[in-house]
Amino acid sequence: MTGSRGVPGPAGAGFLAVDSGGSGLRVVVGTAERGVPARRETREPVRTGARGLDPGHLMSQLTPLVRSLTAETGIGRLDTAVVGAAGLATLGDALRAELPAALAREFGVRTVALAADAVTAYTGALGVRPGAVVAAGTGLIAVGTDLARWRRADGWGHLLGDCGGGAWIGRAGLEAALRAWDGRAGGSQRLLASAVEAFGPMPELPGKLYPRPDRPAVLASFAPRVAEHAADDPVAAGILRGAARHMADAAAAVCPAAGEPLVALTGGLAKLGDPLLRPLAEELAKRLPHARRVSAEGDPLHGAVRIAGELATGAFTLPGDEKMLLVVSAKGD
């Protein structure tokens, strides 16, 4: 590992940046001089098996995309690659062991950075500045740094955590719908009507939901319905207030205590708008009065491109971490 410093490649050398998430791969190639002229994507997420994330499956999808991109752009040499992957911190042992050598064989890459998607989300949102980022989509994870080390909170999946994420909001909304169906306290007739519209009769919901391999995404699909009712339904509003508290809890757990760190929200849940963002702003002001809230500058792919560009030019200064941000040279160190 090169530690927290990159080794600059030859002038004009290209870079590869990858964002691997729950909806597939997003891939770009570029150079420090030309930026990012082209991109490709797939709709198939990388498989997870007994060894965690499958490097062979990732490479089988990545290779034709990269060949196409290099042919289109005329970038013939890729010296640097950055792969941001969901699940890398907990399921990334096989990727860390095999992917750098595979990228070297296929594309001649000399320097590889393997980053948790939370790290690329952070870098896309804030760049190289101290602070905390809450990445909230189907799931939820918070990551922070004082530029000396990384800290993370949550990101434990929809069964054990991801509190305040899209699946959490959707599940809470469907629970309120089922409470109304049963006649139990805490139910919402408005959410019940929306759930029936989206999924059909409530007694059939468990059979439709539990066998689905994409269960978190199905739960998260109901989150916008919860937001739609927040203005006139106290149950829906309470769910979003609870989500905002969870987000603020995660941000407070990772945010640097000194100085005036930045705090940003990134991910699809930002599209829920004021029903979520207003209570989130209030909760962050309570929990992190010393921090300054800012809008995210870019997404995780933008973060991967930033890291790749800094590695390619020798300007990389983010802290290394065995699980969250590992930089490997062609010599394997």
- Tell me the Rg in angstroms: 21 Å
What is the global morphology? globular
| Alpha-beta classification | alpha/beta
Compute the number of strand runs. 13
Question: What portion of residues is helical?
Answer: 40-55%
Overall pLDDT: 89
Number of helices: 12
Task: Bin the strand percentage.
Answer: 15-25%
Characterization of the model:
By secondary structure, the protein is of the alpha/beta class. It is built from 12 helices and 13 strands. It has helices at residues 55-73, 88-91, 93-107, 117-126, 166-182, 189-199, 205-209, 215-220, 223-229, 234-254, 274-287, 300-313, and strands spanning 14-21, 24-31, 35-41, 48-49, 52-53, 78-85, 111-116, 131-136, 140-145, 150-154, 262-266, 292-293, 325-329. The strands form 3 sheets. The protein has a 6-stranded mixed sheet with strand order 3-2-1-6-7-13, sandwiched between helices. Strands 10-9-8-11-12 form a 5-stranded mixed sheet, sandwiched between helices. The protein has a two-stranded antiparallel sheet with strand order 4-5. A hairpin with a 4-residue loop joins strand 9 and strand 10 (150-154). It starts with 13 loop residues before the first strand and ends with a strand. The relative contact order is 0.18.
